[in-house]
Amino acid sequence: MGQSVNRRQFLWGTATAAAAGAIAGRLGTPSAGADPAIPVPTIFHSPDMAPYVDELPVPGTSTSSPTTPIEIVARTTSTRFHRDQPKVPTMAYNNEPYLGPTIEAYVGEQTTVHYRSELGEHIFAADLDTSLHGVSERYRGQPVTSMHLHGGATPPEFDGNPERLMLPHHGTALFEFPNRQEAGHLWYHDHAMGITRANVYAGLAGMYFLRDDHDTGVPDNPLGLPAGAYEVPLILQEKIFGEDGRQSLRSTPLVPQGLWEGGAVGDRGLVNGKVWPKMTVDRGLYRFRLINAASTSVWHLFFSNRMPFWVIGNEGGLLNAPVRTRSFMAAPAERFDLLVDFSSLAPGETVDLCNDLAPPFQAAVIGEGAVPRFCRFIAGTDRGDRRPVPTTLRGGRTRPARIPPIATPQRIRRVSVSQPYELRLPPAIMSLNNLRYADPQIEKPRAGTTERWDIINITPDSHPIHLHLVMFRILGRRPLRTVDYQVANPQPPIGTRWAPDPSDFYAGPMRGPAAWEAGWKDTVRAVGGHVTSIVVRFPTADELGFDPDAVFSSDPTQSWTRPSGAHEVAPPSSSGHAHHARATPVHGLATKDLQGYVWHCHILDHEDHDMMLRYRVVP
To answer: Which of 67, 220, 252, 439 could cross-link 435 (Cys pair, CB 3.0–4.6 Å)?
Structure first.
C-alpha cells in the first residue's frame, strides 16, 4: 500500500531521528565537546532587513499591437532586493532587473511575441536536481526555458509546453496569442520541465492584462474603475536570502544541495521584486491587480487596520458585482482584482498588507513560519480618485455580459492528489492520479463537453491545481474521511492510475465557493482532506479558432502543426525521451512530436516532481 506522508512530515521525522544516514553525513557528527542540547539546524534564515525602506517599484509596460511583434528576451541580470543588501544575480525578461514587463493586450487582437533566451549559467546551477524528469547536467550552464501564457486560450504549440524547450542563443521562437477570450488578468512565466521553480524563482515571470471596450485601462473607462497611476500590479512572493544577499532556493540543510526539496516557506515578503516595500498613496480609490506568485505558500491576506475592500475579479475577468470583504485566501498562481479605498486615512497614516495564515504543523515544528507582511501604504496629502465603488460590473449595454449560472456537467471525472512516500532522498514525489508525468494514462475530455472534475486531495495541505487552455467555475469543496477512504481503497504503487469514487467517505456537505472566488478561474485551491469540484467546458476547434489537439514540434523555433487524427503522439518513455525523437537537433536539443496540454499543481516544486500530467482535448 502506498503511503501518503508529506515532505514536512518526513523532515520532522528525520530531524528527530538525529539526521541519520546520508543527511547525518552531510551535517556532520557533533564533536565530543558539543552541547547535546543544541538542536540540529533545520531551516535557513535570511539576514535581518529593515521593513518599509524601499519604494514599491512598478514593472514597465509593453503594449501589444496586431501589426508589431513584442520582443521578449530572457536574460541573466542583477538587482538589489533591499536597500541594505548588495546587488545579486537574477534572471528577468527584457530590460527589467527582475521579473518582466507587464504586457497589455486587447481582446480579439492577436499578440505576436518573438522570444529568445540570452541566459548565462543558471544562477541556481548547483541546486538543479538532474534525477528529475528530463533535467540534464547541461542545464546548469545552459538553462532551458519555455514561456507559458498562464490563463491564455492558446494554440498548443504556443502554450509553453514543458517539453518545448529552448537553449540560450539558439534562435528565436514565435508565439501567437489569439486573445479570443474575455478580458482578464493573465500572467506569463517559465514552464521548463523539471526546473520551473528554479527559473521562476530566479525572476522569469510577468503580468499580462487583457483589455476590452469595457475594461480599457484608461481613466474614462465605461466601468468607472481606477486607471493610470491608480491601477497598480502587485506581484507577491516569498523568499529566503543567504548572508551574501543572494536568493536561496534551499530552505533546509536536511536535504543536500542539488536534490529536490519539495517546497519551502520563505521568511521575507516581496512585492514587485522588493522586500517589504512602501508606497505613498493618494487618499482615494486604487485598483490593485494582485497575484500570489510564490512557489509554495497559501496566504490569508488583509490590511493591518482590518479596513474593508472589494474583490472585483478573478483570473478570467470581472465578477458580476464587487464583493466587499476584509480578507481573502490566495494560493500560488491565483490572481485577484481589488478595489481599495484609502480616503479614510489621514495624511501620513499607514496601513500594511498582511498575512496571518500559519504554515502547517509539520512545517512549523521544523522552524518554518508565515510571512506576516508584504508592503506598507502611506497616505499622502492628495485626495486622489474619489469616485464611488461601482455597484455592478456586468450586465447592461455599457458592461460585459453577466457570468451565467454554473453549467450542468455531462460527465464527472475524478482525479486525485497524493504524496507517495519512500524512505529515500528526495523523500517523496508529488503525484496526480498516482502517476508520473511520463505515464501514458492521461485525461482525454471531448471538445464541446462540460465536465465536473472532482479533485480528491488526500494530503493535509492545499494544492493549487491549474488547467492549461480553459477557464472553469468552482462548484464547491466537501470534507473527506481520508483515512477511511485509503483503507477501503489501498493506493497501489505509483504508475497505476488511482482516483477511487469518494462518495461513501464524505465527512460533511459541500460548501460553495467564497463570493470572492466565484468568477472565472484557471487555478483552484484544492484544500487538504477535501474533494474540490470544478465545472469546466472544453471548447471546440471552431470556438477556439485552432485545433487544440494538433501535433507540434518540441522545437520552439519551428512553427508547424498537423491536425488531430493525422498522427497521435506516443507517450514519452520512462527516460523522458519520446519514442520517435528525431536524431538531428535543430536548436541544440533533439526534437520530437508533442500533443495536447498539461494540468498540474502550481506549487512549483510539486510541478517539477512530478505533480503534472498531460491531457488532450479530443474531437
So the answer is: 439
